[in-house]
Amino acid sequence: MEKDCEPVCGDVKTAPLSEAQLDFSGQPYSASVLQVGYCVPQPDGTFRADGTVTLLTGPKTILVDTGGPWGRELLLTKLRERAVEPADVSIVVGTHGHSDHIGNLGLFPSATLIVGFDISQGDRYLANQLAQGQAYPIDEHVCVVPSPGHTAQDVSVCVRGTSVGTVLVAGDLFECWSDEESWRDLSVNPAVQEVSRREALRTADVIIPGHGLPFRVIRNT
């Protein structure tokens, strides 16, 4: 077995990437992890957590998850390090409605917001097919994919054409690499989430999880 690989589904294995591997160049879109999410249990039984934040740059500037409101200034700093102002972001995707993933939506009032299965521009809500289990294409290279289970309306963002192949920004569909002992306890519907996870492992080359470093998917062919 390849070092640091873990079998997760049939002939599929996964292996974590390092903190030095947070930028995935591509044409026409590149994906950059601005913040690696975390979840740390505390002695009193609570836990401290914030979600992964990912920036897609290309024909459109897309932010996937915003982290919690306590990280507002850090988010602004990370964007400006990439020469991106909030007004430059045309689409913000919240993979689900938890505060550690959508706590800074207010920084982007002019962006199209996709939060779970809801899509809005200002106070105007747009019809879409996510609730029917169909992907919502942003363009031919990026689409929003329904991936329920953690909550009833989770989505992931699929980015094609990067240097590592297809990148899936998965929110809490995957908590982190090697999360087999934890994800079911955090799921509203583990059976549905299992199906969503298997589909992600079938299609993605790299997965960016909600609370940890990206990991690659290795298929025996």
Automatic annotation (TrEMBL):
GO cellular-component term (any): cytosol
Chain ranges of the Metallo-beta-lactamase domain = 50-211
The reactions it catalyses are: a ribonucleotidyl-ribonucleotide-RNA + H2O = a 3'-end ribonucleotide-RNA + a 5'-end 5'-phospho-ribonucleoside-RNA + H(+)
Tree of life domain: Eukaryota
What is the annotated role of this protein in its UniProt record?
A: Endoribonuclease that catalyzes the hydrolysis of histone-coding pre-mRNA 3'-end. Involved in histone pre-mRNA processing during the S-phase of the cell cycle, which is required for entering/progressing through S-phase. Cleaves histone pre-mRNA at a major and a minor cleavage site after the 5'-ACCCA-3' and the 5'-ACCCACA-3' sequence, respectively, and located downstream of the stem-loop. May require the presence of the HDE element located at the histone pre-RNA 3'-end to avoid non-specific cleavage.
**Family designation:** Belongs to the metallo-beta-lactamase superfamily. Glyoxalase II family.
Q: Would you tell me the protein name for this molecule?
A: Metallo-beta-lactamase domain-containing protein 1
Q: Specify the taxonomic lineage.
A: Eukaryota, Metazoa, Chordata, Craniata, Vertebrata
